[in-house]
Amino acid sequence: MQGRQGLQEAQRIVVKVGSSTLAHRTGKLNLYRIEQLVREIADIANQGKEVLFVSSGAQAAGMGHLGLRQKPSSIAEKQVIAACGQGVLMHIYEKLFAEYGQVVGQVLLTRENAMRHNQYQHSRTALLTMLSMGIIPIINENDAVAVDEIKIGDNDNLSAMVATLVDADALVILSDIEGLYTANPTTHADAKLIHEIPDITPAVEQLAGGAGSAIGTGGMATKIEAAKVATSAGVTMAIAKGSRPHVLRDLLLGKEIGTVFPAREAHLKVRKSWLAFGKDLRGDICVDAGCERAMRDQGSSLLAAGITGCEGDFAAGNTVRVLGASGQEIARGIVNYDIETLKKLMGHQTGEFPQLLQGEIKEEVIHRDNMVLMV
Predict the structure, then answer these.
(1) Of 11, 135, 245, 348, whose CB neighbour count within 10 A is largest?
(2) According to DSSP H, which parts of the chain are helical?
(3) Quick one: pLDDT at residue 117?
(4) Which among 26, 175, 153 has a CA at the least distance from the CA of 82?
């Protein structure tokens, strides 16, 4: 299969592991599993490959360190736990990786690092420099100060952003579930694992359920979103069960475990990656079949005449999704009009704009230079 070959050939790999894989049901760290994971990553590095490690677990480490049995509900308490736990977690990683002859470095990112173009570029430079020096970056959200990150708790999309930042070949997300199934395996005994998903359609998105663990906060839906980001940037992505013995080795050998999402062919340039994946999405624009064909086949800008609807709370300069007639996301881009203005313009030809608007007029709702196709 195309996706399995992409994993076998990968030389720069992002590995993401969630709290549900790193922690026991008590909320405290599973040191045995962490040691196994470190050994596998170190062995990949010994093969001459580059590895970046996106690790959750700061709050789990903090809970154990502070003797807490339940995760608190307030944001301030979560921040304190993460602040205490991040140091504990890094101490464990430094000790274990050093035993296998590897040097690691901590990188804490926030959504702001992705949304500001200069910070996006600086983050890219820092990570690439670490790799060139033989250092394994250990990356996490900066939970101690980033309120939004605490609220979302989504290292799946963080790992996809990191993969696009460094032009990775592969992204492996280790979870408490084997991959994407035809139905929820906890409630449907006949559910079957889907081994490869070449195209993320609305039907595939509907298969993604809620969070699968009381410890982790990122469910299958965020993993599908991460797959859309990664594959569109030329990264092969896999979801597999983190507790499976030799899971990384088996995936990179091409064995048929987990669910694989094959990469699209072309890597995006840095600015296009930032445009598509770094910026916060503020709404959706729906287009008709003719507009969709023009965007897909000709790389056309988005014009108002082909728009059939819009949702969200976006202003001019925000990033939005463009959805085709079937509901599938076909593009992302920076919109030139706010939602209320766009509601007046949609369905109209550009020549009609002077009768509908006052002030500056832009012909394109989204210019092709500020748009990235997702299909």
Answers:
(1) 135
(2) 2-9, 19-22, 31-46, 58-66, 75-99, 111-115, 117-132, 147-152, 155-165, 202-207, 220-232, 247-252, 270-273, 289-298, 339-345, 353-356
(3) 61
(4) 153
Position 268 scores a pLDDT of 55
Residue 143's CB is within 10 A of a number of other CB atoms, namely 25
pLDDT single digits (tens) 313-341: 999 988 899 999 988 889 988 899 999 99
For residue 257, give Cα distances in angstroms to 171, 177, 254, 320.
Answer: 15, 11, 8, 35
pTM for this structure? 0.77
238-255 pLDDT, tens digit each: 999 999 999 999 999 999
Reported residue count of the chain is 375
Q: What is the pLDDT of residue 144?
A: 59
CA angle, residues 103, 105, 108, in degrees to nearest 5 = 160
Domains within the chain, CATH numbers bracketed: 2-271 (3.40.1160.10), 280-373 (2.30.130.10)
Q: Residue 346: which region, alpha, beta or left (left: phi > 0; alpha: psi -120 to 50)? A: beta
Q: Which residue has the tokens 């766009």?
A: 342
Q: Using CB atoms within 10 A of its CB, is residue 121 exposed (0-12), middle (13-18) or buried (19+)? A: middle
Helix (H) or strand (E) holding 187: none
How many Å apart are CA 230 and CA 279, to the nearest integer?
15
Tokens describing residue 41: 């990553």
Distance CA 319, CA 324 (A): 17
Which pLDDT value is given to residue 269?
54
The alpha-carbon radius of gyration of the chain (Å, integer) is 21
Half-sphere exposure of 82 (CA within 13 A, CB side): 22
pLDDT tens digits for range 188-227: 888 899 999 998 888 888 887 644 444 443 478 889 988 9
- Tell me how far apart the alpha carbons of residues 219 and 211 are, in angstroms, rounded to a whole number: 4
Using the CB atoms, write b or e for 285-304: b if 16+ within 10 Å: bbbeeebbebbeeeeebbbb
Q: What angle do CA 206, 209, 215 make, to 5 degrees?
A: 155
Decide if 365 contacts 335 (C-beta within 8 A).
Answer: yes
